[in-house]
Every structure is written in C-alpha cells, then in structure tokens.
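Page 47, continued from p. 46.
Same chain as before, 246 aa.
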Amino acid sequence: MSTLDGTVVAITGASSGIGEATARLLAGRGAAVVLAARRTDRIDTIAQEIRDAGGHALSCPVDVTRAEDLHRLVGTTVDGFGRLDVLVSNAGIAPISQVADLDTDGWTAMIDVNLRGVLNGIAAALPVFREQGRGHLVTTVSTAGLKITPTMAVYAATKNAVRTLLEGLRQESTDGVLRTTAISPGYVRTNLADSMPDATIRERIRDNMRESALPPEAVARAIAFAVEQPDDVEIGELSIRPTAQG
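Result:
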C-alpha cells in the first residue's frame, strides 16, 4: 500500500508543468487529486486520463485571484472525496522586468497571483484543516527568492513574501494540526516564460531552460516526498535545482 492511499490533494496551476506532473505522480501513488486551473479543457482532459489509468481525479475551474474560486475548489474537493488533506498552491506568473521599467500592471498581476492567490487558498483550506485536525499546505516558491538577480526583483519579492507567510503560519500552528512546506525550484521546463512580456528576457530564460532545466516531474517528486512524510514530520523548505545551475 502506498503511503498516499486515501490522501486527498487539491492542486492549483494544474493544467501544465509542475502542477500537472504533481497531479499525475500523486494520483499514481494512490492519492485522490483535484486539478484546478483557468484552462478548463486541459484540467478536464488530465483528470480523465488519470481516471482512465485507474486513479481518482476531479477538475475544478479556478482563478486563484478570486477568493470565491478557492472556496469552490475546497468545497468541490470535500464534496467529491470527503476531506482535503493537502493543498498544493502552485499557480504562478512571472512577467519580469527591471524595476525601472515601471511595469506596474505586471507588478500587480504577480502580487495578485503569486501572493494573494496563496492567501486565498489558505483562507479557504485552513478552516477545513482545523475541523479535520490535520492538513498540509505545500506552496511552490522559487530559488529566485534565494539568489536575487536583475529583472526578478518584484517576482522574487512575491515569492519571499510567501516564504515569510508560511514560516509565520507554521509558528502560529503549534498544535500539530498544520504542516507547511515551501518548495523552491530552480530552472524547470514549464510555460512560465510565456508570461514574460519582454522578448529579450523571455528568450534568455527559455535559453536557460533549454540548456539545463529540470523536467517538471523532478519537482513533483520533491512535492511527493514532503507530502508522504508522517504527520509528525514537516519538511519546512526544500530547494530543487539543476546541478548545473549557477
């Protein structure tokens, strides 16, 4: 029996990349998964493929900037599988640029998705975790917050805000109910560069991804490692990057 048999996991940003890989891996290890994203056709297809392979999966359209969407995700999960054990907050965008470019629309979008989206998930999931007496928040942050580089100041700021948020929440949750995990990937082969409006920056990031990026499945395995720990073990933070990444 897998350690994930019977575990119920909701995943945002599940239509591609890390989110999709995580849904497929956890379902393959026995978890019931609920895939959430804005691209309804993609999450419907992935959920059906998981079911066709013998797994348990549902899909739920979600825009993480909308608090009501996260409440609907949690409700769909509890209605469908009876509980929610883990919320993987993976949705994120990176319209990066130099601060002096004053891309205030990009700043707002990153704050809304990368930070507010995580807060919306916490607000929806935490009451369920408290009622159940257990729950786990796993959030995708970034090594961009560990090593600050030009063009990534605001993006890194949103990720570091989430890192700080999870640590504060962990310290407030000393009753053993809640576990928190911040997963910090380095370069991963995903569609993240698609959200970068500056063509020069976008191509530089894509070049880096082509040269040394990890497959999304590598990060999914790191998430699975954190989730599979017994309730009295918390993996607070885990960085995963290509060996060749500087």
